Amino acid sequence: MASSLSTTLKFTLQHFSVTLPPLTSTTRRKISVRCGPRSNRGPLVKGRILSIEAIQAIQALKRAQRTDPSQIEAQVSKTLNRLIKTDLIAAYKELLRQDLCDLALKVFPTVQSECDVPDLGLYADMVLALTRTGFAEHIDELICDLEKVGTIECDDKSLVRLVRALVEGEQVESTVRVYELMKKSGWGSRFEIDEYVAKVLRRGFKRFGKEEMADEVDQQLQRSSRLV
């Protein structure tokens, strides 16, 4: 019986064939999705998230500007004075990011009042924003206010940002004022001359046709180099 079953199985296998479909590799297509900005605004400052209080202050200022501009000063006093320094500066920078320079100018005195010495980086941010948005006529007034402070920290790394912003914005008088303020504050005597700041000033004065000032900066730089 076993022999008969084996013979039958062999016969069946010889006459039965199974065709298997060829193995194919599955090809996966990758679709790249790019997310672009929804407006021309710059990105938020990396690592900085606006607090709820800062957002509410910005919204209050924008609402006052839209409905009753005469209330902006009152809103600045009411909302911004409650913010801690980091939130106040973050709100100020967000206004600049949104190109709301008119509001930022209202906020700026409050921001600077929180600083023991003039924050040159915040001045540089304002100069760049005013130049970018076509409100450069306010820059001279801004620098005049800085001049009234009396002195600045010439070893502040933001000094070069401010000088570059003024030179690139073709702000001749403001550049001269900042240079005179630097000398009054001890640049070249109490503070060591930064070579890069000196080169930016020298190129700027040459561009503005202020050859005597360019030569003066060059002489100060050479004198400083000999002392090293």
TrEMBL record:
GO terms for biological process: chloroplast organization; Group II intron splicing. One of its GO terms (molecular function) is RNA binding. Transmembrane segments: none annotated. This is Putative ovule protein. It comes from Solanum chacoense.
